[in-house]
Amino acid sequence: MKSQPTAFATKRNEPPRNKVYLTSNHMGVSRSGVTLIELLLVAAFLAIGIKAAYYFGIKHGTMGYVGGFLIGSAGSFLSFGCFGYCIGFLIGMITGFPEYPTCSNGTCQDREAPDSDYRYEDYNGALIARCKCGTPYIKRGRRVMQLQPNGETKPYMIWKPLRGWRRDETGN
Ligand SMILES: [Zn+2]
After folding, report:
1. Does residue 155 sit in the same domain as residue 84?
2. What is the domain range of residue 131?
3. Angle at alpha carbon of residue 41, lines to 114 and 33, rounded to 5°
4. Do 15 and 74 fall within a single domain?
5. What does the pLDDT look like over 28-79, one tens digit per residue?
6. Distance of CA 151 from the midpoint of ligand 1 (Å)
7. What is the 134 CA–ligand 1 centroid distance (Å)?
8. How far away, in angstroms, is 107 Cα from ligand 1 center?
9. Nearest-angstrom CA–CA distance, 65 and 33
């Protein structure tokens, strides 16, 4: 008589492993926890640092190793940071900067993540932003619409590159 393999049973009883958070990298959304992507990036920066350490170490000895590692890691980190900043800037030029216009009461502003008057919320799986007055807004491309209590959207503002946020006159 065959004994039941126990692998399944023990696996099922194992506590869940540390979760890797892969939340949407929506600009301005603060995330908790370190993402897998961030871990991979740090590993890549260190790998570039180690490569640079070998390269300079062979040529210049101990100081070459130390300097090469520091310059390689920090350099790759900085260049990646600049790259990300440029991408963010380009996206902002296309879809709006700041991401949300001043609210319909004229009081709330979208600023850098912790200081913004807008808070992101989940609305039936869609990402919406609610200003301090309590008005919910939803963004589609370069359009920002007000979310009505009945779930319908009302055009509010549209982003015009080089001209900024303008009243969205469509559908009125
Ligand atoms: Zn407001």
Report:
1. no
2. 113-167
3. 40
4. yes
5. 444 446 778 888 999 999 999 999 999 999 989 999 999 999 999 999 999 9
6. 19
7. 7
8. 5
9. 32
